[in-house]
Amino acid sequence: MSYSAELWQSRELVMQFALRDLRLRYKEALMGWGWAILMPVLIVFSGVILRSIIARAGGQHVTLETAAEIAVKAVPWAFFASTIQTATQSLVANRALIGKVYFAREAIPLGAVAGQMVDLVIGMAMALLVLVFAGHIPTWSWLWTLPLLALLVLSTTGVSLLLSCANLFFRDVRYVVGVVMSFGIFATPIYYTPDMVGPTGARLLAWNPLSAVMLGLQRVLVQGSPLLSPQQHQWADGTSSMVWTPWMLSYTLACGVTGLAAGLVLFRRYSAVFAEWS
Amino acid sequence: MRASTAHPQVTFDGVSKKLRKGTAHNSLRDLLPALARGLVARGQAREALRREEFWAVRDVSFHVGAGECLGIIGPNGAGKSTILKLLGRILAPTLGRCEVIGRVGSLIELTAGFHPDLTGRENVYLAGAILGMRRAEVNAKLDTIVEFAGVSAFLDTPTRKYSSGMSARLGFAVAAHLDPEVLLIDEVLSVGDHSFQERAFARIRTMVDAGTPVVVVSHHLKRVAELCTKALVLSHGHVVHAGAPLDCISAYMQVSSGDAPPGRDLVRMLRRGAASSSIESGGQLALAALVQRGEEAAIGIGVRIIEITTGRLAFQQSSLMELAAGTGDGELEVTLDIRMHLQRGLYSAQLYATYPGQADWIGEAEATVVEVASPPRWSGESWLAVSCRSRQSGEALQNQMFALAKEP
């Protein structure tokens, strides 16, 4: 049986692993489904505090608008960060199973991603509610959210496959991942936008594949500006440069597809020896 | 995982599997040295063993086709489970070819897919998916599975509250309803209580009779004898014997009896009576051996019969006859005819030699395995009639009858 056919046949297993994770997370847990939005809420809070400190220094005030703006980016970031951390540990967490039964091993990290997608949907719905409360009126261009989130899930999946595999062979990978995730939020435009960090900062930000997703969401949901037209920014010294172009989305797509392909190929190559390492 | 056009079958062709003893490198710190070693070792043949490595399975070949059931027996650590893992695609062979055609059902580690915090129902769906069942398939079979396992009343209870027997029964029920085309069984014939074991065994039996190729690993030798059409004995990864199940069980008894006692060469197997066969209760088993006559002391001839399944000593008698001391006439042929009025079961019978009045064996013949296939014609006591004679003139022919304790 071909590799792709086997993966396709494992879709129900992916769903069952996702269901198991969700049930274990929410069953008999004090907060129940509240856990799904806890992490985004915390990220929004810290963002609002950060922004209000900056705003106060400039003599301005932070509004619900700021909170809403951060929320639509905090939810996708929370998805990315917790999926990567959960998926990284997923193979090690299921090593007893790997040593005893054969199934397409990809189902384990893919199940971890699928489980987190439920949280993403719940969190995103909450963020959109906050946005409406802040006075935004939903438009058709909000539908861009779906392809943007799909791009995010695609990129997350490739990285999840690679890291889950790496962590099985080298158990300290997860600590490295934890540290990278803690600082990664500052290298992604979540609390801020490229026009706040100067021309060099904006150029560096464009290299982060997640930037396009975050900025895209901000454009269609918060600013209401068209996704597919570029935006120039005039800096204080009089020069100007691009802070948004739709090509950034192509870059993210390219990274995502490459990552997923590399993830699937490497994962498959090494999965034959998983049972000996687990 | 659906069957191709070929018939379901299992082929193991010169398979070897190398495993590591410890963990070689499990932290990033070890990555660079490991890579360096990998580069150096690149040209090395796969045959070579590096430090910490050993052959868990070495050059094993067999084929199991339709209607065949292969039993793999051997001491702990012989590589039995590794073979099942190779067949189940959990491990990949280092050398050789391992091919399984058909949808594989593994009755191995039945509860591996269960999570204790999930309910019985949730676990059935999870374990079913792990084994490759579709949701619709599980839906259709859920009632049958639950009924077979006998856990209907606890279907929505977390399995952590199940007894270990209940979990195992549910695990078996899921795996057994997969409708496999090839069946792998590892030591699961001892799950649950007696009545469940009988049902589980009957279910496996049905599959074997329906022509499903089966590979069984078990220490339950009686089950192997009942179920299998052929067997092989494994020791340290090597096949030491292959053939009929009873022959293999007999060979396994030799492997597992460990070091030869001193003076073993005093007794030499001449003829294995009723070699590896099945007799009715009351049927006759003949054992013959050549015994070296003692030069200074007399030698006593004894026989020991062990019920293999339980390891229980069924019968032992050390002084069936005495061979007087003497020189010159070399080996004597001793023949035992034993009428086995025993309960159904699998027995190993062994002729041995002692100095009269002493417990230590000074020699023993190979054990003969015999299956008593029918129950005694009357209920009640088991007994043996042993007639012992030596071919040499001058030795008395002895006929004795022994009653055995009633079976509990």
Provide a quick synopsis of the model:
The complex is a heterodimer of chains A (278) and B (408). Chain A is mainly alpha-helical. In chain A, 71% of the residues lie in helices and 3% in strands.
Question: What keywords describe this structure?
Answer:
heterodimer, A: 278 residues, mainly alpha, B: alpha+beta, Rossmann fold, Immunoglobulin-like, 6-stranded mixed sheet, globular
Can you put this structure into words, describing what you see?
The complex is a heterodimer of chains A (278) and B (408). Chain A has 278 residues and is mainly alpha-helical. Chain A has one domain. In chain A, 71% of the residues lie in helices and 3% in strands. Chain A has 12 helices and 2 strands, in the order H-H-H-H-H-H-H-H-H-H-E-E-H-H. Chain A has a two-stranded antiparallel ribbon. In chain A, a hairpin with a 5-residue loop joins strand 1 and strand 2. Chain A is globular, with a radius of gyration of 20 Å. The model of chain A has no long low-confidence stretch (mean pLDDT 90). With 408 residues, chain B is α+β, with helices and mostly antiparallel strands. In chain B, the strands form 4 sheets. Chain B has a 6-stranded mixed sheet with strand order 5-6-7-3-8-9, with helices on both faces. In chain B, helix 4 crosses helix 5. At the A-B interface, helix 2 and helix 5 of A face helix 3 of B.
